[in-house]
Amino acid sequence: MSHVRSPIRQKWVTNTDTYGQITADIVRPIESKMNLTWIAVTLLSAAVMLFGFAMIGWTIWEGIGTWGLNKTVGWAFDITNFVFWVGIGHAGTLISAVLLLFRQEWRNSINRASEAMTIFAVMCAGIFPLLHMGRVWLGLWFFPMPNTRGSLWVNFNSPLLWDVFAISTYFSVSLVFWYLGMIPDFATVRDRFAIQGRKISSRIYGILSFGWEGSSRNWSRYEVISLILSGLATPLVLSVHTIVSMDFATSVIPGWHTTIFPPYFVAGAIFSGFGMVQTLMIVTRKVYKLENYITLDHMESIAKIVLATGSLVGLAYMTEFFTAWYSGSLWERYIFINRAFGPFGWSYWIMFSCNVITPQLFWFKKIRTSMVLTFIISIFVNIGMWFERFVIIVTSLHRDFLPSSWSMYTPTYVEFGILIGSFGLFFTLFFLFAKYAPVVNMFEVKTLLKHPKKPDNLETGSEPVTV
Amino acid sequence: MKRNLLIGKYWDPEAVLKGLDKLTSQGVHIFDVFSPFPIHGVDPYLKSKRTRLTVASFIYGCLGFLTAVTMMSLIYGVVWPMNIGGKPALAFPSFVPITFELTVLFAAHGLVITFFIVGNYWPGKRARLLDIRQTDDVFIIAIDKDKLSDESSVKAVFTDTGAYDISETEYER
After folding, report:
1. How far apart are alpha carbons A170 and B105 in whole angstroms?
2. How many CB atoms lie within 10 A of CB B131?
3. Which residues in A lie closer than 8 A to residue B164 (C-beta atoms)?
4. pLDDT on residue A1
5. In this predicted structure, what is the pLDDT of residue A22?
């Protein structure tokens, strides 16, 4: 491309010198036959997913009495999982939208898979508040519609309703953004299949590609709307976790009622999301041999973000403690002491060590560039961030203002089943995506290739075609 | 509308920009450029108007804003005021989150739907490609032959700037 670029800056595409090579490398999994490993892992995660669905069915049939909730701890596993999955989603939007606005070129090869992660994570998240309602078939009552229920309207002052709007807007806008990004790449896949004479496959991708031709007039509009969508998605993603944090922060429960929650939740969401991006990318680049597109430099950049946001989260934990002491409020102080040293103290220390201590290892370049260690740390981050939500929700609730109503919480197999099932759903969708869609954004990666070599297989005199 | 196009195929986007520069300096009208990815710097040569999608998006956003504010004020202020903990029913600060979400929702979806309509894209539409590899690694400059006075000079520019194939074809748009 025509802009001047310093030769000392790192290359985001390595060992590749033609555009055709990029296409061939990225389309390979779609073109090649299904391999046994893929079938095995997809079936395995589908089985886990079905187990989760069975547990969901049991919950709906029998009611949420099948869960370990009680009068004191009314929110636990379900809302923990909800906040966990929504948080995971945030990294995708951050990579696709915020890094686009900042013109970070390294986002180009990881944005597609991260956005997919966002969408699947939000789908998993959506399950939990729905189930938590107890009567899922009344879910439509959440929408402000004229009705015959004594003209009953929703409560616009409730953060739980804000959540409905935030999550549904976030999901639909992310979905559109993701799909829009795939249209030119679907067109590329369509034409590859057309060259190979695989008409049905070519037609399927043709339908998906909306007849994309790559005309400059459309590219120009396409770039403008990508930029506007990024501009819209950036405040959107911040608003979503802010609103999720308000589910807690607008209450009067000690441990929840804090103004630090919105920025703290957003930082935590980005942290957990990037942890999941690390987990997925390390596996994807290895299995699909995409090391030339998702390079060690990419993985290092992600690790640096994990380090930064992990430190922010650590700072937030300590600020919470300081504020609890400084507030002079007995209840606030008690809840925090109880959080770290009470009966659920073990969960606090799992959270603290996974989220605050392990990411600090990323100060060392050797660790940032070791994929094995990065993978292990990313798993710790995922575990730690799940526990963060568990700690916030359960430890704040289980000892409330009235000692006679103090209680403990133990999850049942149904709750564990739904959690595991949500991972099954997530990975099933991700495996399907990885097989049938280009996992790396081809056209954006092509813009990173400077000074391409002349392809050997150029054909002259080829006729125009309709595909 | 059926057109007769004179097309030059390139393998290097830099060469496309050089070609466009020479052609427009000779006063040739460029019909379109096809490329596997957006080439920055092509727009000025196409002399197309700046897209008004930004304005459209702003209008959709305003629509979303108004929808949210009117709906919530009407429902909560007029039709069904609810007394929850003695708090005012018509509380604008607590309308902010939903107002924001609906603004984004309308702006984003309105924008994308308009983009599809303006660009005439729909699922199942057949693509007419001048070269099957134009979504892979081939870059094409297309010129409307009927608006051309001197064909040979255009062909010369194509050859000079590194086009590997020059051909003529019919195209419908």
Report:
1. 8
2. 22
3. 458, 460
4. 44
5. 92
**pLDDT interval class at A4 (50, 70, 90):** low
Q: Is A133 left (phi over 0), alpha (psi -120 to 50) or beta?
A: alpha
Contacts of A224 in chain B (CB under 8 A): 51, 53-54
Please report, for residues A174, A202, A400, the alpha-carbon distance to residue A344 in angstroms, rounded to integers and kept in the order given.
36, 56, 14
- Taking residue A28's Cβ as centre, other Cβ atoms within 10 Å add up to 13
- Indicate the SS3 state at residue B128: strand
pLDDT band at A37 (very low <50, low <70, confident <90, very high): very high
Q: How many pairs of residues across A and B have Cβ atoms under 8 Å apart?
A: 234
Residue-wise pLDDT tens digits, A214-268: 999 889 999 999 999 999 999 999 999 999 999 999 998 999 998 999 999 999 9
Quote the tokens at residue A106.
Answer: 């390294």
Maximum Cα–Cα distance across chain B: 83
Q: What is the ipTM of this complex?
A: 0.93
Contact (CB<8Å) B135/A207: no
Beta bridge partners of B32: B142
E strand or H helix at B139: strand B139-144
Measured between CA atoms, how close is A462 to chain B, in angstroms?
7
The answer on pLDDT for A195 being more than 70 is yes
Give the phi and the psi of residue B141 in degrees, each rounded to 5.
-105, 125
Chain B residues in contact with A162 by the CB 8 A cut-off are 97-98, 101
Which residue ranges make up each domain of chain B?
Answer: 2-50+132-172, 53-118
Q: Write down how long chain B is.
A: 173
Hey, is the C-beta of A226 within 8 angstroms of any chain B C-beta?
no
Query: Which residues does B133 contact at the CB level (< 8 Å), separation at least 6?
Result: A20, A191, A195, A459, A462
Q: Mutation test of the interface with chain B: which of A154, A157, A247, choosing the one with the most B Cβ atoms within 10 A?
A: A157
- Of the partner residues B38, B53, B98, the one whose CB lies closest to the CB of residue A219: B38
Reduced to 3 states (helix: H, G, I; strand: E, B; else coil), residue B10 is strand
B164 in contact with A at a CB cutoff of 8 Å? yes
Residue A158, Cβ neighbours under 10 Å: how many?
A: 15
Of the candidate CATH numbers 3.30.420.40, 3.40.50.2300, 3.30.70.260, 3.40.50.720, the domain formed by B2-50+132-172 belongs to 3.30.70.260
| Site of tokens 């005309």 | A215
A438–chain B Cβ distance below 8 A for any pair: no
Greater confidence (A351 vs B88) lies with A351
pTM of the full predicted structure?
0.93
- B123 Cβ under 8 Å from any chain A Cβ: yes
Among candidate residues A243, A266, A268, A264, the one with its CA nearest the CA of residue A255:
A264
